[in-house]
Structure formats: structure tokens, C-alpha cells
Predict the structure.
Amino acid sequence: MSMRTALVTGASRGIGRACALALASAGHRVVLAARSAEKLAEVAKEIRTESYVVEMDLANRDSITNGIAQAAKDFGRIDVLVNNAGIAKDGLAVRMKQADWEAVLSTNLSGAFYAIQQVLQGMMRERWGRIINISSVVGEMGNPGQANYVASKAGLIGLTKSLAQEVGSRNITVNAVAPGFIGTDMTSELSEELKQKMIDNTPLRRMGAPEEVAAAVKFLASDDAAFITGHVLDVNGGIYM
Ligand code: NAP
């Protein structure tokens, strides 16, 4: 088998960056996608295998379609897709602005779906593929103040299970990874009090590292995970079980 190519969305920092580095260390060529081309270029410098940077806005369907098409044309077929890009715009449902609902749903859920649509035909033709969607523990358990984010993350789990059933016969696996409380930009703005509360509720009594999520992604992308599909892999220190 020649070197496989993995596309990671939201690869400019945090969990996506860690996924890109982990997949590269496992021998994949990597396509790095996000809005910030500058930050992607920095990540690309850290990668020893071949890599390709593509500026892409996951909230915009044309940007996704064109970006992935360009990457595939210049760099070759996509074998592994990691839908990691995500945002949160928290607020109570009763006062949530339409713009905040739509931004989160379109980036986190629709963006993942359009990326999947863009890579799926190639995977079907090849009769090999791995799709890994980064959900969240709150997509499994709910969270007050995050109706939009939770709906997007629960939506990714439903998408994962439906798609796994559609494309299993083509030897394409579709799985989700549901991280708990992980130290990244997304969680750095939380108050010390809330952070401590999350840690107290986590049996392993600490936050997770992006690399610990990336290890699960690397596994699901590997040949060792060939018979795993439609699964939600919790990487959450036990905060939900
Ligand atoms: P992060 O540090 O805030 O990074 C988010 C990534 O997504 C960045 O690379 C960002 O790149 C990209 N992104 C955001 N909006 C985008 C858009 N419209 N188009 C393209 N790329 C976009 O977040 P993180 O903590 O690493 O989270 C990564 C994923 O894990 C998210 O889906 C998040 O929901 C999920 N997650 C995180 C945690 C946690 O505790 N951190 C827990 C559960 C699940 P640009 O800004 O350059 O576009």
C-alpha cells in the first residue's frame, strides 16, 4: 500500500494540529485545512512527511468543495478525513441569536457533511476510506448553555452512524471521537473555577491533552481499526461513561 493521505480540518492549532502531527508520525501524507493559512504553514513546518496546506472556511460550502478539490488535484486522493474544525458560541437557548445558532451548526455539522461529500466518491472508487468525526462528550450528555454546540456534536454522532451503514460495503469506516475536557484555545477562556469543577468531575482528575485525542484518531485511521465502524470513542478521562 502506498502512503495514505489524510485531510485534517481545523489543523492550525489544538486537537486538529495534534491529529495532523500524529497521522504524519504514522506515515500519512497530510492535508492541513483551516482559515488561517499562516498558522497552517507553521504546522506544516513541523511535519516531516509530505504536507499540503489549504485555506478553507468550513462555514462555506463552496470554500470546502473548492479547497478539497484543489488539494486532491495537486496532492492526490484523500484516504482519511478527520472532521475536526469546530467552534462554540455559548448562550442560553431563550436568548440565543440566530447568527450564533447558524454559525455553530454550519461550521461544526454542515461543514463536516460537505467535506464528507467531497471525499466520498474517491473513497468508494478505491474501496478504502476512513472518516473520523470529532464530536464531544457534551454531544452524548447535553450541556446547559450550549444548545447549538451540543446539537452540532450530537448531529455528528447521528451522521457517523448513518454514514457507517451506507458505506460499510465499500470498506469505508466512519467513526466519531468524543473528547472530554481538553487543554486548547477553546477551553483556555473558561474561568479557573469552571476548569477546577470539570477536573473534579473527571475520574482521572486532570484535563486531557490534544495528543491524547490524536492518539485515538490515529488508531481509528489505522489498519488495526479495520473492523470498527459507527463507533463513538470517548477520550474523556471518565467524565461520562
Ligand atoms: P481550537 O483550539 O479552538 O481550534 C479550532 C480549530 O478549528 C482551529 O484550527 C480553527 O482554525 C478551526 N476552525 C474554526 N472555525 C473554522 C472554520 N470556519 N473553517 C475552518 N476551520 C475552522 O479547538 P480545539 O479545542 O482544538 O477543538 C477541536 C475540535 O474538538 C472541535 O470540533 C471541538 O468542538 C472539539 N472538542 C474540543 C474539546 C476541548 O475540550 N477542547 C472537547 C470536545 C470536543 P482557524 O481559526 O485557523 O480557522
Observations:
- The two ends are 37 Å apart (CA to CA).
- Strands lie at 5-9, 29-34, 51-55, 80-83, 129-134, 172-179, 232-235.
